[in-house]
Amino acid sequence: MTSVKRVKKPFNWRKHFKQHGAHYLMLILPMAILLIFKYYPMYGIQIAFKNYRITKSIEDASWAGFKYFEKFFSYSRFWNIIFNTLFINLYSLATFPLSLVLALLLTHLPFRRFVKAVQNASYIPHFISTVVLCAMVIQFTNSRNGLINEFLGLFGVPSVNYMAKKEYFYSLYVWSGVWQQLGYSSIIYIAALSGVSPELHEAAIVDGASIVKRIWHIDIPSILPTFMILLIMRCGTLLSVGFEKVILLQNSLNKDVSEVIASFSYNVSLNSGTPQFSYSAAIGLFTSLVNVIMLVSVNMLSKKLTQNSIW
User: Fold this and answer.
1) In 3D, which of 193, 134, 179 has the Cα closest to residue 201?
2) What's the pLDDT at 4?
3) DSSP 207
4) Domain residues for 173?
């Protein structure tokens, strides 16, 4: 028998766009936003390698090479800033599973009215601005009439100025963030848990499985891919700490433990009498490169160990 060769028809672009034209139109706006606000600003990365002055254009600035990177690496408090940034992020990372725990509790609690009340109460702090949140933290920890000291005073505990004690800064920063974001972060897990087949739980109940075993053998394996992807993305910001909250909680007494990369970059650029934009850009580029390396590394590790990854 002679083999019949199939002739490959040329791709009909006109027919393709006629069928999927609406989808391409929907992509125009998000692609435009991505190009204008994400990719076009990357043109300014070269500021990190130039002696940029705001009175001149980027093209007119002279090249400085790795001058500002070396300046940052040789800064006397470089390792202190890196340690503060890493410690705050790792401390926050340790609280990352709490939103999953809350989602599991809300999913399995039988008192639905109580669950709704807890959900609403836990979501509300997310909508409080950072400025208001920091003002609340400062007020609650006030040594004279702060809520925390007033409450502890009922048990004879002496008043403490928490904002002046360096050892309390990390906990105040992290746990105030947990209080603000815990409920809102649990939404994605609650949505993932709602997709778990109830037949699996019914079969487990028939077999005599306790609620703990059902959570361990049914719920957690079902939402593990979601958890791992969120964890990978969180690890991709290991050197990024928002400077707003740090600046608002920072004072001269806790600056040794509160100075992070983002706040230092802000102080040498926008909060300085002689702004060093090239220096700040070099710090930002260094942070971004480390974050990308961390993201790729953790993604590869997760793919190897759990078969879950972003790509």
Assistant:
1) 193
2) 57
3) T
4) 67-306
